[in-house]
Every structure is written in structure tokens, then in C-alpha cells.
Specification:
This protein is α+β, with helices and mostly antiparallel strands and 505 residues long. The chain contains twelve helices and 32 strands. Helix 3 packs across helix 4. The longest helix is centred in the N-terminal third of the chain and has 13 residues.
Length: 505
Amino acid sequence: MARNVSCIQELPVEVIQKIFTYLDIQSLENVGQVSQEFKEIIDSSIQIWRHLIKSYCHSQSLLKRNLNYTSYVQSKTCAKSLRKFYQDLVNVQKNFETGKCKKTIIDCQEASLKGRKVEKNPEWSRNHNFKGVYDMTLNEGRICASVYDTIQVWNTKESRLSYMFTNKILDQDNTQTICFTLEKNYLMCGTDNGYLKIIEIGTEKIISKARVNSNCLSDVKCRDDLIITLDWYGNLTFWKLDANLQLYQIQLKNAESYSVPFILRQRDTERLMDANHDHLITTYKSHITVYSFGQEAGLVVSFPVYSDVFCIHLNEDLVAFGCKGSPRHEDAPFIHPVAGIANLKFRPPRVNYIRTPDNDPVISIHLTSSHVILGDINGELHVISIEELKWNEVERITDLVLHLLASEPHLLLYTLKSHAYRDFIWALKFDGFRLFSGDETGKIIVHDFLNVEDIKSIEESDNSDKDKEVDFTAVDDKEVGDENQSKKPKLDQEPELDNIEATNE
């Protein structure tokens, strides 16, 4: 053994480092005990720790995709920092499942940039049934959020405001922006008279716009290089940008099969849309319509759920949705669930419905491969494990109150009360490390599961002090840099839910 070690030690340090990159963390710790020289090589090698970090993230697409938008970037040139980052990284999943996180606040409503700020119009609530952070997208480490009549782009790594688009910029062509998404350096906006317009975020200029009719656009999404718009009548249109960055309409294979079912063609309410490589999902009131991009291209199925859908999120073959539901009353013959997850592998889709403890309407949602996160109208975030869900029935209802009393594994991991009581949580995004939740007060609360030193988990916290939780650190104007759903405000009485429409996550 000593002879073998001696032979290895005679190799150049670069070769030894390369050999050590093939070892896992436990093997590295064992090797470090063999000799002081090996320990020093491991402790000082940037190559070894970068390889460990990337190997850990390789099998977890969400972490891999967002790794460069964390403190990893600052740690790249220091082995000691990389080792600390790796130790924090392997604890992210445990921290997330126990609610152990560091919380900070991005105050979008009070932010300013280049003299621009959110104008607080006292007439706003009279003309709109939403306020604050109304919708939000996450793209390449940037949060793009609508805040009253502005759209703001924040650098998530530094909580720094990069761009602010006022209504004068958004509506510079006299068309009102209704929906949006951010893709690379372009803000893609759907308008009230059917236009899809592309705004270059650096110059703030419209570089292209086009339409097929004057129907108001309800949602816009990007799927690779494909841009999809959905109008208020449920019609889908597919677009691409040519080499000169000009929009042109394209016809997919079996284009006629992407038509909206006749019974769902009324213009009555805002519609939602989400898309991935295989599926395209739209909503209309309490109906969810599924289209396919695969061999069965076109309309697959449209199915009803118990109440109006307010938010959706698609992840592989699962689509999660939040809805109106019904309140818990002792004399209620049936309590409508406020959320559900449909498995699109089955025909018809099999659905697991969820009732939360208070069963407040769910207006924002985010789905991962193992969890679903629900944001409701009472300022609560419910983190639910879906790994134990069964798909052996066409329909199944899980009541989290009854489930907590049962001896089986708990689905509801915890409830975060980061937002004030009765503040509507309109938007949710999760990048594998951080949960971003935007509410009607114009704030985005960042729950960081990576950098959590000296922060207690939910289970360790004092239950009598839940409402206080952790002191928030606000991002004020000094920290703001120069860089890049129809909803309803909080009510003084028990909220009337008939007028709450939808928000697409």
C-alpha cells in the first residue's frame, strides 16, 4: 500500500488532480487521510471542487441551469470557497424540505432607476382588480415582474434592478401591453389589439411587431425559438424571428388540429397558457385543454376541473393548477379543492386534487419533479411533496388536514408565512436554490435555501413566533443599480371570489 502511494506521489500534481476528479466526496475524504500531501492537493485544488459541484448538478437540471446565477461565480477562483459552496449545495434539498432558508425582500414598488419609478395612482384600484407584483417570469438568472403599470427586470444574484420599463416605453406604439415574457435580450409583449411586439431591452425600442387579427392577446410564451400567443377566444398563433429579427407566422404540422374546441371559444375571461417540449396547455374558466407537439400533434383532450383555474405550471408530463375551490364550512356537502396535478401520460389525464388546511384560493403555483408550491390569497406558501402521489385512479382528492392526522407520510412539508396576512401572492418562481414570491404590496420575497448559515428550520423555529419568523432585509434605492393572472386586491371583508380571474406562472 505504501509503495502504491509513493508511486502516485511521484506523479505531477496536475495528473494527481485529474485522477482525484474521478472520486466522490467520501473517497476524497478517505484519500485525504492517507497523506498530508494528498490532503493539501485536495484542499487547494480548484479543479477538483469545480468538478464535484458540476457533477452534483449534472443530474439535476434545475440546479445545472441556474448554477451560474449563484455565489458559485464568485467562488470559481478559490478552492476554499468552492469547497464551502459544495457543502452548502449538498444541503439545498434538505433545507428546502425543512423550510430552512434566508429571507430577503426586493421592494419593487419603491425601486427607482434612471429617474424612473412606480407611479402610485390613487385611481388604480378603481380601474384594476390587481395591484403590486402581478405576474413574473424567470429567465437566465433574471426576474421579470410586472409591478402596477411597469415591467421590471432584476438581477437575482445581486438583487439589483437592471431595467425598468414604464407604460410610456411599453406602449410607445399606442398599443396597450397585456401580457409579456422575457427571452434573452428581448421583452415579448402581447397587446390589447392583437399585436405581438418585440422590445430590445437595451435600446427599449420595438424592433418588430405583427398580428393576425385584432383580438386581445391573453398570454405569450417561448418554446426554444418558437413564440406562441393565445388570444381571448382561445386561438393559438405560432411565430418565429428571422435573421433580421422580424416576426413571421409559421404553420405547424397539422395546424388545424390546434384549433380551440368550439364549446370553449367564447370571450369571457382571461386565459392561461404554458408549454414545454411535448405539451401545450391552455385554460378557459374551469377547463384545461391539452395539445401535443409529438406524434399526436394537435388537440389531445380538454377536461373540466372543480372550479375556475387561476394559475398553471407545466413540468414534463405533469401540469399543476391552482383554482378557486370553496371554503371549509361544517355544513358544506362538498369542499371543492383549491389545487390539483394532472398526469398527461394517461388518457384521459389522471388528476390528484388537493385541499389545503384553510382551503384558500390558490392564485400562484410552481411545480418541480418532486414538489408543488402553492401561493394563496392569505399570504401563505404551502410546500407539498408529490413523490408519494398515486396515479392508479382517474381522480383522487387529498385533504391535507386529514392527511396530517393520518399515520402515512406527510405530503404537506410546511407552510411559509413570509408575507403579511391576507396579502395576495400573485407570482411564484423557483430556480432550485431560491423561491421568489411576489405579492400585492409590490414586494418579492426571496427564500434562499443555499446561503442559510445560522438560520433555523421551520421545525426548529418557535411556533409561538411564526408570524415574526426572520427579519427581512429590504433592497433600498442605494442598492439599486443601473443594469437588465386577472387579479384582485386585498379586501377588508371576506373576499368575493367570483371576479378573481387567472394568472399564469
